[in-house]
Amino acid sequence: MEFSEIEDLIIKKNIVIDLSNSSKEIYPLGSFNKYSNIPLGWQNDIDVKNLSKSYKKLDKYNKFLFIGLGGSINLAKIASFINPEKIITLDSFEISQIKILREIIKNNKTAIIICSKSGLTPETIVLKNILCEGFDNSIFYISDNYNLDKTKEKTFITPKDIGGRYNLSTHFGILPFYLLGFDLDKIQSYLKLSNKNSKGNNKDNYSLKIASFLYKNYINGEKIINIESKNKKDFISNWIEQLISESLGKEESGLLPIKNFNDFKPSIILSDRKNFIESDLININTNHDESIFYMLNSLLYSIAILGSLLRIQPFDQPNVELTKNLTKEFLDTNKSLKINSNEKVNFSSIKNSIEIPFNIKKRKIISLLLFSTKINSLLKSNLNKLTEYCHKKGIILLVYFSPGYIHSTGQLLKGSFKEIENFIINLHGNEDQNIPNSLYTLNTLSKNQAISDYIAMKKNNRHVLFLDSTLEEFNKEIEKIIN
Fold it and tell me: Last residue of some domain: 182, 212, 234?
């Protein structure tokens, strides 16, 4: 189909109209019990007149630490790029980072903002307990309930009909940028304009054009999409990666987003140039000011439209919940999970997967899923070099860090792209961290989460291997390949 024909198809199907009014006409039910449970509130205009008043309680603080995972923290991470001195985020179990943040909290007037829509995210609660002991007066929450706030005075309540990765117009999205000094009225105006333009059932709707571009490449067999940001460290590509992975990575279908692969097509380019579309490249105008809300909100509509074209329910994440539930089982029972010794492999399995020739007619995709409380700059550098090394061999190497990826790309890895070779890597070490009011340590939790994810992948019939190593050994083995 030609690009214009896909635009005509979307308009003829009334997808944009039915998205707001009758989602059962355009989506399968997915894991929802009924269509009225599908969270579609993200399409509503917002009223910011009371927000600045509710945010006044934070005025006395100089720094703001956001703790959370996945969709709850990704927008705060974008804000942290814009002003890393003021906005800090934590979404990992890295002990060295936890220690640094503990000192920042001690020596600065820092507000700690716990981000969990359900208020029950196990890893977020663990990080809160480790970091926040003794700083109760500085703790605030963003959630759709008061599960963690007995006073009911320190929680910024979000709508229940807006899902995690679609929470741009809630406190999860607005508060971090307000704290940067963004103008609330401008944010409201950009969101309202985006809602208006993205609901137009016509070819002037740029959200419709983005969906058409992605679908055209999809039906032409291009199911891997490269996301390149003008600034590779601004976390916007991470936000889009989760949006695509968690919304479309189901039913053995969807798109696989990769980030900043040089010269890879098709690509979504995020830059300050005007919007334009070519056959294998789309540029989306992006700036680090209030207009970013227009751009991100428009992408929410694009992926929702694409979900309808692919007959995928874009608002649930069934496979993410499996790992979460297995981890919760460990936390509730304190009974360590185990896998058989014959299911474990050594580093040679990764090396062989990279070095052994393969059918070049079909791209090989490998994912390294790292579980560790110790990650250093050398490892990150080596992994970047390994990714480039594989790219030159025609291999797409995906590197994801826990626990963040479980709440993001974990859905895609278990719900689609069955051909990916997954390696779950537990990097154990001597350094550990006690968790207050708990019988287990952070290393123990990290390892059991790795096993939980391994079990979840096996249940979803994924190709997955489990590797135990140390950070030092792992670095050495990577260097053997790339040098």
Answer: 182
Q: How far apart are CA 467 and CA 460, in angstroms?
A: 19
pLDDT at 222 over 70: yes
Q: Read off the tokens for 206.
A: 């740029």
What would the pLDDT profile of 5-26 be if each residue is shown by its tens digit? 999 999 999 999 999 888 888 9
Q: Residue 460's closest CA among 311, 309, 321, 255?
A: 321
Asked whether 284 and 269 are in contact (CB, 8 A), the reply is yes
Whose CA is closest to 469, among 421, 419, 424?
424
Q: Would 403 be classed as within a structural domain? A: yes
DSSP class per residue in 80-123: HHH-TTTEEEE-S--HHHHHHHHHHHHHS-EEEEEE-SSS--HH
Q: What is the pLDDT of residue 359?
A: 58
173 domain residue, yes or no? yes
Residue pLDDT, tens place only, 159-169: 999 999 999 99
Residues 6+ positions from 187 with CB-CB distance below 8 Å: 48, 174, 177, 178, 290, 293
Query: For the chain, how many structural domains are there in total?
Result: 3
Rg over CA atoms, the chain? 22
Statement to judge: residues 85 and 23 lie in one domain = no
The verdict on residue 42 lying in a domain is no
In a domain, 16, yes or no: yes
In contact, 253 and 310? CB cutoff 8 Å: yes
459: domain CATH number is 3.40.50.10490
81 and 32 in a common domain:
no
Residues 365/353, Cβ–Cβ less than 8 Å: no
356 and 462 inside one domain: yes
**365 bridge partner residues:** 396
Phi, psi of 177 (to 5 degrees): -80, -30
Query: Long-range contacts made by residues 405-408, C-beta under 8 angstroms, separation at least 24?
Result: 405/369, 406/69, 406/70, 406/320, 406/323, 406/324, 406/449, 406/453, 407/69, 407/70, 407/71, 407/72, 407/121, 407/320, 407/324, 408/70, 408/71, 408/74, 408/238, 408/241, 408/242, 408/245, 408/246
pTM: 0.95
Based on the domain organization, do 198 and 175 belong to the same domain? no
The residue out of 125, 154, 182 marking a domain boundary is 182
Q: Rounded CA gap, 165 and 268, in Å? A: 19
| Average pLDDT of the residues in 122-141 | 92
Average pLDDT over residues 431-448: 89
Residues 150 and 87 grouped into a single domain? yes
Q: How far apart are CA 249 and CA 269, in angstroms?
A: 21
**Which one-letter DSSP state was computed for residue 137?**
G
Q: Are residues 344 and 378 in the same domain?
A: yes
Same domain, 376 and 434: yes
Q: What is the extent of the structural domain holding 96?
A: 51-182
